[in-house]
Amino acid sequence: MTKYLSFSIKTKLTSKLVTKFTSLLLVIFTTVLLSACDKENDSSSLSRILARGYINVGTIFGPTNYYTTANGFAGFEYELAKQYADSLNVELRIVPTYSLDELFIKLNTGEVDLLASGLSITDKRLQRFRFAPSYETISQKLVFKQGNVRPRKVADLTGTLMVTSGSSYVENLEKLKQTNSELAWQESTEFDSEELLRKVLSGEIDYTIIDSNNLAINRRYYPEISIGFSINEPEPLAWMVSENSHDDILASLVEFFGTVHHDGTLLALDDKYYGHIEQFNYVETRTFIKAVAGTLPEYQPLFEKYAQELDWRLLAAISYQESHWNPTARSYTGVRGMMMLTLATAKQMGIKSRLDTEQSIQGGAKYFKRMIAMMPDRIPTPDRIWFALASYNIGFGHLNDARIITQRQGGDPDRWVEVKSRLPLLQQKKYYKNTKHGYARGEEPVQYVDNIRRYYDTLSWLDEKAKEQAIALQLAQEKSQALLLNDIVNDSVNESTSEENATESILKEEEVTAETAQ
To answer: Is 322 a catalytic residue?
Structure first.
């Protein structure tokens, strides 16, 4: 009876515990579920974004999306996302990652409100996500290392092709495989597009695929990358929101992209990142990179000395465009020296000898700063820099004529992207006859500015890489010195211990000898 009662009590207690535990699990599950629902609603509802005062935007680290510079964050997608956040009057919070698969998970779980990462609109993605209006069209290029046999079609691929996992490249390759059964490729979750480019250059893989806009940027640093063929028809790029997103956030994106298309914001942003790199010259790029390594170090201290508040790399880029860093350079127009100053400009800047390298750099820096100062304060950076460069080349008067033409045609005279399309009009009589300063070869400053911007971008990238390598080398040396010092200390301690042990042994032997003698 007692045993039965004991068993009955235990059964009831166990039953109560199970009931309580089950209830607890139910409460936890419900709480998590509600939390997840709240999080999902929060991620996809514009009203909640406005209420909390910030927006989480997911993107991929890279030169077209988001990266850090000495002056803060940069990238086409970053700046466009900042414009959107400002239009909502909320704080922008970028959530960057290196993996596309991880990015999609963050969107589905509500960790980010939208994705701004140069994503192609594809059939499979349309089944899982919703897209804002397209803002750019790109093509996907199969690339290889210059010097190898160029593949012109899928059947020509004889080596290893590797692409980023989760990318639209995989979807397009799957379509190609339907008509090219021999097509094979590897997918990597570890390497991004830029890393795969370097693997092509090192010979670890034979081919990879990259978006045309990303390729245009990277060819300035890796000129040996060559294009085989396009793997698809041009695809539109757009921002992505979750399938369960509320219509209000999509509606706000439709309105935003309509505005930036109409007011020229998108055009200016596109010109800032891609306008000067549309044309690629392999020989020119290779020559410049060699000059940075072989010629620039001799003159870099002078560029740094006289740049002052300017970026010395911009001053060096101007000098390379002018003279290819040749102190005795001369043109048919009579300009001479490292900065190719006219005789009149040299006198204005107080320069006695245009062939003196230091004086030439000093005079060129002083003159360029004067050009910047002449630009209206309302013109923002970097446009005022591009205007100053054009003025350095063609003269302030002709630049103003082009700005006036821009305004007459309904364009914005304070945006470089608008003015540069009108500068060539100074070569046409029906336009220059109505200007103050008349005819000018307006195409030259456009090419001039584009060249300097390419040189500046490449030099900045090379300089940052050199700094990273110097820091890594210093850390390695410090580590090596620390290990060496540690070895010396250990050897010293071991030697001291050995000497003490030897001395102790000798003393013991002397003691034994003395005892024996006694």
So the answer is: yes
